[in-house]
Design a protein that fits this description.
The complex is a heterodimer of chains A (367) and B (506). Chain A is mainly alpha-helical. In chain A, 70% of the residues lie in helices and 1% in strands. In chain A, strands 1-2 form a two-stranded antiparallel sheet. Chain A is globular, with a radius of gyration of 22 Å. With 506 residues, chain B is α/β, with parallel strands linked by helices. Chain B is built from 18 helices and 20 strands. At the A-B interface, helix 2, helix 3, helix 10, helix 11 and helix 15 of A face helix 2, helix 4, helix 5 and helix 6 of B.
């Protein structure tokens, strides 16, 4: 729920620690004492989750750098950040969907469709300005998101089923459109392809975009009513209805946002790799969900932050980059990712149990 | 306390409201007026329609006929948000919190105080929550998540939430069930100050002393109908109980007289922290023993523990003299115990499976040969039970969802009776079943007892308890408050024990 403050949510900066003690310890004090014992525990635990990933990340980078000092060279770090960009953007969108107790499995296909659309536009309308084409690519993703959202929120079909269907549907459209064709770097303007090489304050431009996405989404989820209502809907849909939250709209919105972000990822993919066919982004959806889950976004909704999801994406990308340098075979990479998912879910469970015990304080009321 | 002169329209009123769910008439032509500056009690047995009425006021249910008036104007409350706009705040019987969110967010969800740029002002929100808790005189950390709060603390959060609305109409559906004495006093103080500021409070409670202490008028409901509204000052507890239950025990119950045989079930000192304590009783062959009490008294929990679905910490359960290992339903089944659960849709049936499959589910091993379950054997076994229970179904291969509630219940019964149990535990056997089928289920239970099966029945319906049971065990707040033999069991004696009125139970 609460983002780590260093990631930039100034509104809350340390307020938890400085808030005044609750007023008026009345005669009911003794009955409450045991519950008051767990004061602030919840907040600390939730922060611990994101710190844990950060720690794992630092550890991994440190070990890899010791073995292979080249890992921390400027170019290597830039490559790493660039590599993490797509996964991070997708993980942010996926987190918003997961928080409302849905899931979007179609992101890989949406990204692929958007990337191919960008390529086709450059091929078919060479005169179009690059920004227009990029906006169109995002729009393709948005439309896909609207399709998902309408099916889930209005037709009330479970998100797992809807997005499994659209996963194949969007991919099918992509195949039909491409019909075996491949678009190459030569078909696209140099200005567009060069975007990945532009740096801002030493960071590749796409990574800056990803960072902006993370911060904006995190800021929104934390500080706006509609953002908080996404958590409410995911935490307990029935209760959300009772307090008058427009549940359907809150379920719909993240799908659209996620579609747009998948569209953006498609645009960035096209710019970075320059070679596009109908298979772009195949199988990416599970990696995206994995990043969010490793980052502490609960698969059953209601908790987690996009900061955590972004850290999860960064961690998975770093593992991909680091294991070859550590001479670990590619066969083991997937096993390591799997282990990481199990460890992080196990850790969540453990933390939740400990928190529950502490928060409950052992005080059950008399029968 | 000053009464407004009659011309002032009531803050909120229900006019001739009816509401049905399928064949069950939850509300029939109910009218109710909530005036400014009064605390209005709503009394009735379990199932009298109080919660449906609350949900109608809250905008959760839309009335089938009749309408809601706010300040004398007919107003459609189609959604909880409409009711909130009309100034209605509701404290539900079951807390409705977001476990993942902080206490302060739970209170202010959708109405968080805003700072510049429509940003949520967390500091203001926390301070407002602290102020609410100070008014209630409790210490709760607004920043902690709602997950892990005790039931009482959850209820306090609900109360704080309702207070934060500055509502003109506050509805409290059994808010005190989980609270301690001090907390109840604080809540009452808050309710009185709301009333003195011109709000109307609708207060639902099974505790008569609270009704008499706090309320100005009381409306009684029974079987979904409006019975009466009277000033509390002109009533006694006896009057109130009488109008709540006042009807003849229906002749709906074909109870056979059976000479009780050997003791089948013996429960001693059963306890689980915070749920039930020191529960001891026995059931003999051929006997129907009812476990009565209010919702939340711990009845279902006790029978679930007896069957081994739930754990228990102290005590023993013996069936025919042999001790059952705790927490092992399979052992209970082997010992001849069958449990027909309260919620048949979720726990008793596999809704999408066919009737015959459901009916033979407990005997799938006995019916199979060499591990293969043959369809023909299933069909024959199911057809036999369908006939014995007079099941009204199209085809036995249809999904269970196609059946009415009463016939679904028969399938559950068939499933368990097929195991030839010595002890049959039924939890709310006729909930949500139409009157005709109810009588059939009762006939069936009575017949089973006649054949020497020990029956333990959890029921919230007093007529059913009185009509069917040889003995009535009344639970109150996790303990057995009274054991009343059939001859002495009356609606009054059971209600007194169930509401914890000491010394008046028979």
């Amino acid at each position: 729920m609460s983002g780590p403050d260093e990631t930039g949510a100034p509104a809350a900066g340390g307020a938890a620690q400085t808030s005044p003690p609750p007023a008026a310890p009345g005669p009911a004090q003794e009955t409450r004492e045991e519950h008051g014992g767990g004061v602030r525990t919840g907040r600390r635990i939730r922060q611990a989750r994101e710190l844990g990933i950060l720690l794992a990340l630092v550890l991994l980078v440190a070990v890899t750098a010791l073995v292979n000092p080249g890992f921390l060279s400027g170019q290597s770090v830039r490559d790493l950040l660039l590599g993490a960009t797509l996964l991070t953007i997708l993980a942010v969108g996926q987190s918003m969907v997961l928080i409302t107790r849905s899931v979007d499995l179609s992101v890989g296909s949406v990204m692929g469709l958007s990337a191919f659309a960008v390529g086709m536009m450059f091929v078919s309308f060479p005169g179009l300005p690059t920004p227009v084409v990029m906006a169109a690519g995002v729009l393709v993703g948005t439309v896909c998101g609207v399709v998902n959202g309408v099916l889930v929120a209005a037709a009330r079909v479970p998100a797992l089923v809807v997005t499994l269907g659209t996963l194949y549907m969007f991919r099918g459209i992509d195949f039909w459109w491409a019909s075996g064709r491949q678009i190459n770097a030569a078909d696209m303007p140099d200005g567009f392809l060069g975007l990945s090489r532009v740096t801002l304050l030493g960071m590749p431009l796409p990574a800056v975009v990803a960072l902006a996405v993370v911060l904006a989404a995190g800021w929104y989820l934390r500080n706006y009513r509609s953002g908080r209502e996404l958590y409410a809907v995911g935490s307990e849909p029935a209760a959300a209805r009772l307090v008058g939250i427009p549940v359907d709209r809150r379920v719909f919105m993240p799908f659209v946002a996620n579609g747009s972000l998948a569209g953006l990822a498609g645009v960035l993919y096209a710019s970075r790799f320059g070679t596009l066919d109908a298979t772009v982004g195949t199988g990416l959806e599970l990696e995206v969900v994995a990043a969010a889950v490793v980052g502490g976004v609960a698969i059953f909704g209601g908790s987690g932050t996009v900061y955590g999801a972004a850290l999860g994406a960064l961690l998975l990308s770093t593992i991909d980059a680091a294991l070859p340098m550590l001479q670990v075979g590619s066969f083991w990479q997937q096993a390591v990712v799997g282990l990481l998912i199990l460890v992080s879910i196990g850790l969540d469970r453990l933390l939740a149990l400990r928190a529950a015990r502490r928060l409950r304080g052992g005080g059950t009321r008399g029968a | 306390m000053d009464r407004h002169p009659p011309p002032a329209p009531p803050l909120l009123s229900l006019v001739g409201v009816s509401k049905s769910f399928g064949t069950v008439h939850a509300l029939q032509d109910v009218s109710l007026e909530l005036r400014a500056g009064e605390i209005h009690a709503l009394c009735g047995e379990n199932g009298a329609g109080k919660s449906t009425l609350v949900k109608t006021i809250a905008g959760v249910h839309r009335p089938d006929t009749g309408h809601v008036e706010v300040l004398g104007e007919p107003t459609a409350l189609n959604a909880p948000a409409d009711a909130q706009r009309a100034g209605v705040a509701v404290i539900y019987q079951e807390p409705t919190l977001f476990p993942d969110l902080s206490v302060a967010e739970n209170i202010f969800m959708g109405r968080q105080p805003l700072a510049r740029g429509r940003r949520i002002d967390r500091r203001a929100m926390r301070e407002a929550a602290d102020a609410l808790f100070a008014r209630l005189g409790v210490r709760l950390d607004p920043d902690r998540p709602a997950r892990g709060l005790s039931i009482a603390d959850q209820q306090l959060v609900e109360i704080a939430k309702a207070m934060s609305f500055d509502a003109r109409v506050l509805v409290m559906d059994e808010p005190t069930a989980a609270l301690s004495g001090v907390e109840v006093d604080r809540l009452f103080a808050v309710a009185r100050s709301l009333r003195d500021n011109g709000a109307a409070v609708l207060f639902i409670s099974h505790r008569f002393n609270e009704v008499f202490e706090l309320c100005d008028r009381v409306t009684v409901m029974r079987d979904g109908r409006y019975i009466s509204t009277e000033p509390v000052a002109e009533l006694t507890v006896d009057d109130l109980v009488h109008s709540m239950v006042g009807r003849e025990v229906a002749t709906l119950f074909p109870k056979q007289d059976v000479a009780a045989g050997d003791t089948v079930l013996e429960v001693e000192g059963l306890g689980r922290t915070g749920v039930f304590a020191d529960v001891g009783f026995s059931v003999r062959a051929g006997e129907i023993v009812a476990l009565a009490g209010l919702v939340g008294a711990g009845r279902s929990e006790v029978v679930r523990a007896v069957f081994g679905v739930d754990r228990y910490e102290t005590g023993t359960v013996r069936v025919s003299g042999r001790r059952l290992p705790p927490g092992r339903p399979s052992a209970a089944m082997v010992a001849g115990v069958a449990l027909v659960p309260e919620d048949r849709r979720q726990q008793g049936l596999v809704m999408e499976m066919s009737i015959e499959r459901n009916a033979t589910l407990t005997r799938r091993w006995a019916l199979s040969r060499l591990g293969v379950l043959r369809r023909r054997d299933e069909e024959r076994a199911a057809a036999e039970w369908a006939e014995r229970l007079q099941l009204k179904a199209g085809r036995l291969s249809d999904a269970v969802t196609t059946l009415s509630g009463g016939n679904q219940q028969k399938v559950v019964l068939a499933k368990w009776l097929a195991t030839e149990p010595r002890l049959l535990i039924v939890d709310e056997p006729t909930r949500g079943i139409d009157v005709g089928t109810k009588a059939e289920v009762h006939r069936l239970l009575s017949e089973l007892a006649g054949r020497g099966i020990a029956v333990l029945m959890v029921s919230s319906e007093l007529p059913e308890v009185l009509g069917m049971a040889d003995r009535v065990l009344v639970m109150h707040e996790g303990r057995i408050a009274a054991e009343i033999p059939r001859e002495q069991a009356t609606e009054e004696s059971v209600m007194y024990a169930a509401t914890g009125q000491k010394g008046r139970a028979a």
